[in-house]
Amino acid sequence: MTDAHETAADHPLRTTGGAPPDDAGSSVSQAPTPLLAPREGVPPVIADADALAEVTAAFAAGSGPVAVDAERASGYRYGQRAYLVQLRREGAGTALVDPVACPDLSGLGTAIADVEWVLHAATQDLPCLREIGMVPTRIFDTELAGRLAGFPRVGLGAMVENVLGFVLEKGHSAVDWSTRPLPEPWLRYAALDVELLVDLRDALEKELDRQGKLEWARQEFHAIASAPPPEPRKDPWRRTSGMHKVRRRRQLAVVRELWQARDRIAQRRDVSPGKVLGDAAIVEAALALPPNTHALAALNGFGRVNRRQLEQWQVSVDRAKALSESQLPQPGQPVTGPPPPRAWADKDPAAAARLTAARAAVTALAERLNMPQENLITPDTVRRVCWEPPATSDAESVSAALAGHGARPWQVEQVTPVLVTALRQDAS
Fold this sequence. Notes:
Order of helices and strands: HEEHEEEHEHEHHEHHHHHHHHHHHHHH
Distance between the termini: 65 Å
Low-confidence stretches: 1-17, 23-28
């Protein structure tokens, strides 16, 4: 262990100006130390069954939590699959696993399934880890812990610097991780991402405990780990950037046809959809409704497309133009919850007054607790309770309403009193 790593182990909460307020005293400000290499060096990439079996045995025999991270190729490849998995555990060291060469990591996942996994921004990595057979039962999310503890900057680099006093290199976060072989500087960066993750976890656990928020964090972590995989998004084409410009149903149909054609091509080529055709080009074509490839080629985003590709895109446009009225998409998605808040004053002035009072109360409470309002309670939950409040605005009824919308017990306990007050003020 280097002197720098000994410092990290011995000094669990070291701030450099980005920590939450310390009621016990002022924070210490020191120049952060660059972390240039993993303590045992950059390990070889695990890319065959025998090496994977050795790593699995080593991590099963290790002790304490296991740090886990995954690298994707967002913006380069289709989907969000993992192209590198990094792990670190006491007694096992650091492992870099290639899930392209070893696509089934269920054996490794099973070996550490009952161990606490330490991840940063867990909801980003858990879906791609699940795809390769790695599913935790317990987690500690250092990003979410930082939010609950009141840190203003919760990126991994900022957290490691502000809490442990080390600077991580972040220059390779947006590279194409599907590249093979992976360059040595990228592998060093990837190994460093898990180098101090358990140290960060330990320091944040102490800070959360000091603030009386540790049980809150545990409830949040349990909710993430136990959440089922999300349902496939309905009508994903509606998320095309610039859709707000598209008003007519025929134009919406063009967006849908072009988006679906692009998605099929991107999936077949295994490239990011944006590399096939940009969202801006799809919207341009929808607004223009070009009659032929010559008109299509004159639009932004289509000028450098070859003749064969232009014909493919024009087929999609023509298909949308040929649809009957009954086949055209509706202007908006079905609304399952309350209307947009801007419409409340006209639709239900009493509900609008409830929402104004509730928002102010929740914002003030979040400031007192020193955490983002959305982590205290989701804005959607507040809107739903205000739009359809319980028949009686007492603590029991409001608590039941919050729990019914998925609020965790700690959130119910904290938010119920201020919502009861807000709803009663409106009633009076």
